[in-house]
Specification:
Belongs to the short-chain dehydrogenases/reductases (SDR) family. Keywords: Oxidoreductase. This protein is of the alpha/beta class and 263 residues long. The protein has 8 helices and 6 strands, in the order H-E-E-H-E-H-E-H-E-H-H-E-H-H. Helices cover 44% and strands 12% of the residues. Helix 1 (7-18) crosses helix 6 (205-216) and helix 3 runs parallel beside helix 4 (134-154). It is globular.
Length: 263
């Protein structure tokens, strides 16, 4: 489990320990998750790929790992134009590159031991978008594409993959995300809006954690798992809109087809 110090990650750790599982968790600050019985904690910044690989190798050398949960993530609110280069790089490194590198590191071990489950925290934001959250969406849409391909590559090895797509979860994630004030051209527009208060977010982190654990126990878990009625409603609406746009282009799409050869 990466990103285990708070939020959904912490809830998964607590629930897994409560039911008697052994948990290996990574955190950036060791003080955030003191070790206890059946809990092994490693300090890790997931964007350090060499360190990530070293932790993965150490853990698999000591344990059979049935479930890997890739949960580490971060957010930033701001228009694409207003974000700094450093913020762009951090969002992609933490939310996309680190998740890809974790998957690449664990797959050989899972294959060697005969299988396992790889659970990747995505978001309803991997299927739809809000203004002023573009870099988070870019990373989540990217990880959705990566796992769509990875799932086909590894299923013959007994490795299952699940993209967990929660809605707006009542955690400290949004409070921790920096907010970049919109520059004058964007003021009063779609990107200039008050953030949703944490207490108004409709999805419960404890219930999300319980559903992730339930799916991890399945022999054939879903490849994508929407959690929260808001996620279901917004994602299905976004997909219906995209499908309608695609269907409207059936005839124009065919204009690019090469003429059939006639022998």
């Amino acid at each position: 489990m990466t990103g285990a110090s708070r939020g959904i990650g912490r809830a998964i750790v607590e629930q897994a320990l409560e039911r008697g599982d052994t948990v290996v968790a990574t955190v950036r600050n060791a003080a955030a998750l003191p070790p206890r019985e059946r809990l092994e904690v490693h300090t890790l910044d997931v964007i350090d790929t060499a360190a990530l690989r070293a932790v993965v190798d150490t853990v698999f050398a000591a344990h059979r790992v049935d479930v890997v949960v890739s949960n580490a993530g971060s957010g930033v609110f701001g228009t694409a134009e207003d974000l700094s280069d450093a913020q762009v790089a951090t969002m992609i490194d933490v939310n996309l590159v680190a998740s890809i590198q974790l998957a690449r590191a664990v797959v050989p071990h899972l294959r060697e031991q005969g299988g396992g489950a790889l659970m990747q925290l995505s978001s309803m934001g991997g299927q739809m978008t809000f203004p002023a959250f573009g870099l988070y969406h870019a990373a989540k849409w990217g990880i959705e594409g990566f796992f769509g391909s990875l799932a086909e590559e590894v299923k013959a090895f007994g490795i299952t993959t699940t993209l967990v797509e929660p809605g707006m979860v009542r955690t400290g994630f949004f409070d921790a995300a920096p907010r970049v004030e919109p520059s004058p051209p964007y003021r009063g527009g779609p990107a200039d809006r008050a953030p949703v208060a944490v207490e108004d977010m409709p999805v419960d982190e404890e219930l999300v954690a319980a559903e992730i654990i339930r799916a991890a126990d399945m022999a054939d878990p879903p490849r994508r798992m929407l959690l929260g009625s808001d996620a279901y409603e917004l994602v299905t609406a976004a997909l219906a809109e995209r499908l309608a746009e695609a269907e409207a282009q059936k005839d124009t799409a065919a204009r690019a087809d090469r003429p059939l050869r006639r022998d």
